[in-house]
Design brief:
Elements: H1 2-47, E1 52-63, H2 67-73, E2 74-75, E3 80-81, H3 84-87, H4 91-96, E4 99-104, H5 124-132, E5 136-138, H6 148-162, E6 165-167, E7 169-170, H7 173-179, E8 182-186, E9 189-197, E10 210-211, H8 216-228, E11 233-239, H9 250-261, E12 266-270, E13 275-281, E14 290-296, E15 298-300, E16 310-321, E17 324-338, E18 341-342, E19 345-346, E20 349-352, H10 365-385, E21 390-391
Parallel strand pairs: 1-4, 1-15, 4-5, 5-6, 9-11, 11-12, 12-14, 17-21
Antiparallel strand pairs: 1-16, 2-3, 7-10, 8-9, 13-14, 16-17, 17-20, 18-19
Length: 393
């Protein structure tokens, strides 16, 4: 019995060993067969971006400096111009944007300071813009030649020395060629910016200085250069239209279509000093989408007539990921300039209008009436004419 048990045990052990050898051989064969596919799959996944990047841009309208605004910024105690109060209510929105862009519709030509028709503003305005959260200003507008060569060149020098990026006017051809289009790399995005104006109020552009004018061949060449630079989005900041008209004219429409046909993704307008509608033309059959903002109106000025006492901030969120770039979201926020008299002197506060619609602390009764009229006028216009762009309150 014992030998039988031992024999059986021995036979069972041998059989088990054979089975295990076969199992190991089979397992190794399977692993060898599937391992290359697993390695290939892992490599493929490593090459495919699984995260997305987003960036939010805010565009504001005309930053004017009529002489009463310059006088309002003077601080007797400090013996200097201070613009902090002008932007303090709007600062959170500008500072939270990844890039904030404005139309600087004045020169920094030095003293004597002056308003319309030949603007020159204190250098401290730039400090105020930077503290407010503005990152980039367009300088190509109808007032850029108000003080001739000094206006163009000193404006550029001051902006450079204080660290505020700018585009649209240039001290010379060499600077123009090197910095136009303006390419900005930030948060994983590569953005191209160009800036143009319809004219300079009949003032000749000084010899060797450059002002980017609305000329089709020039704009087409800039867009081609931006495409060749492998940018994610091409953004055009443009000074056009009829002053005080609340709808785009035929020239604006023609230029916008030309820009889009030649590769512009976003077109942002200024100059009319009043708000005009906004369009988000969503993806077509070729997966092409565009934004056109016809006019942002006044961001800050001394103009108080109906429709001119405010403007809008336009916000657009861009998204990039998995080999694609797209416009994720777009909206606008209405802004209004509160113009009270404090200690015998006019002041200028840019307000996020909807937030102060029912305010009774900062605003007196007449100011509330004026603000509500501006909101009503603006909402009626934009609700009736905007395409896919909502108000942000």
């Amino acid at each position: 019995m014992a030998s039988k048990i031992n024999k059986i045990t021995t036979v069972s052990s041998s059989t088990f060993q054979k089975i295990m050898r076969l199992f190991l051989i089979f397992t190794i064969a399977i692993l060898l067969a599937i391992l290359p596919y697993k390695i290939s799959e892992s490599a493929s996944q490593a090459k495919t971006p699984i995260s997305t990047h987003e960036i939010t841009l805010i565009f504001t309208g005309d930053i004017m400096q009529h002489l009463p605004q310059v006088e309002a910024a003077w601080n007797n105690d400090m013996g200097m111009y201070i613009y902090d109060s002008c932007f303090k209510y709007i600062n959170p929105w500008l500072s939270n944007a990844d890039l904030a862009i404005a139309n600087l519709e004045t020169t920094l030509a030095g003293k004597p300071y002056s308003g319309y028709p030949a603007f020159s503003s204190p250098d401290e305005l730039v400090t105020g813009l930077l503290k407010a959260g503005i990152d980039l200003v367009g300088t190509a507008n109808n007032h850029c030649c108000d003080r001739g060569r000094t206006g163009i060149e000193r404006t550029s020098n001051i902006l450079d020395s204080l660290g505020l990026m700018h585009f649209g006017t240039y001290k010379n051809e060499d600077t123009y060629r090197k910095t136009n289009p303006l390419i900005i790399n930030t948060r994983g995005f590569r953005l191209a910016f160009t800036n143009y104006t319809y004219g300079t109020n009949g003032i000749p552009i000084p010899e060797n200085n450059v002002v980017s004018l609305i000329e089709k061949e020039r704009m087409k060449a800039d867009l081609v250069a931006a495409t060749d630079s492998a940018v994610d989005f091409k953004i055009v900041f443009i000074h056009w239209g009829d002053e005080y008209q609340r709808a785009p004219n035929a020239f604006q429409k023609d230029i916008a279509e030309y820009l889009i046909a030649n590769g512009a993704d976003i077109v942002i307008g200024s100059h009319p000093h009043v708000i005009q509608p906004m369009e988000w033309r969503k993806a077509d059959s070729l997966n092409k989408e565009n934004i056109v903002v016809w006019s942002l109106g006044n961001y800050v000025s001394n103009q108080r007539k109906r429709f001119t006492d405010g403007g809008s901030m336009f916000s657009v969120t861009l998204q990039k990921g998995q080999g694609q770039t797209r416009i994720k979201d777009a909206g606008y926020q209405l802004t209004w300039v509160h113009n009270p008299t404090i200690d015998g002197k006019k002041q200028y506060f840019i307000l996020p209008a909807a937030r102060f619609e029912n305010d009774s602390i900062l605003l007196d009764a007449q100011s509330r009436t004026d603000l509500k009229l501006f909101l009503t006028d603006s909402r009626e216009l934009l609700d009736a004419n905007n395409l896919n762009i909502r108000e942000i309150k």
